[in-house]
Amino acid sequence: MDPIKSGSKIFKKIAEEFEGKNILGKDNINKFFSILMKETKGLVIVDFLDTTNWDKIESFEFDENGNLTLVWYDYRSIVESEIEAEMRKMVSPGSFYGLTINPNSIKPIITKDTALFLINGYSKTTNQIKKLMKNDSSEFKVFDNSFFAKRVIRKIENDWQDYEFHCTPIFSIAIIPKDLRMSTWVSKYILYKYNVEVALRRITSVISSLEKIDPEDFDRICEKVNTARRVLESVLKIECCYKELEVKGNYSEVLLGQLLNLVKSVNDEDMKPILGKMAELLNEFSHDSGKEVDVNKAKIVCGIVLLYIKIFQLSIKE
User: Fold this and answer.
1) What global pTM score does this model have?
2) pLDDT, greater one: 279 or 81
3) Which of 76, 94, 251, 285 could be stapled to 123 by a disulfide with Cβ–Cβ 3.0 to 4.6 Å?
């Protein structure tokens, strides 16, 4: 099949080959990209959370640390005349353009006539990225392009290489068939919506567990509320990305207090007391406060977290 005219059919076939399930683990992710490249010859659209995009994937590879690199353009092996090289460098001064991610999962989204794939990874700090990518480079720089990705520029021999390193567990990449002709704004909407849906499933599971829990199992009650706290932190990080708030620090190092202060600065006045109450109640279950561990209070704070996530979900627009 023609990957440009019949990309949707190809994507749906691939999604069904994986039974529509999350694609997990290096071997399965490698299998997915091998099939995708074979069936499409890399003629796909790659959209990102910030509405930037690619028009193809030239190749892919895994390194020994399990990091996946997708290549957009690689001019290093192309034979160019001096004039051709000069003209190309006016548009693309680098020798290599790609992205790297330590992949967690690929989520197939299947509809009646097509499918698309959303990708998330594991978090990496700036220092971890430097350790992974600085070797053999004579010049090296990491830029804070966004909260979910760092831009890495390095020079190896005479080649300038330009990478986007996706360094959070946020679903930040969508691979889409070319014939779908979908706006990058729609891709952004789908990515944000799916990230929030994941959080909603997690907090709903916590609330369901609290309904069945022994009211005297105080440690387990606290564990469940701490899970709700982690879910809220993840949603606040997504909200910071969506509202383009500057988050200082690596994903794994930014905690609830800092995130709440950031979102308070852009939320309505009516929302600020809710944010403050959430923090107060969550802290009771996270620390040795000496206060009574009340399962009903645990249900209340988890319900407030659920409500906040749903309010944020409604604010996400195409």
Assistant:
1) 0.92
2) 279
3) 251
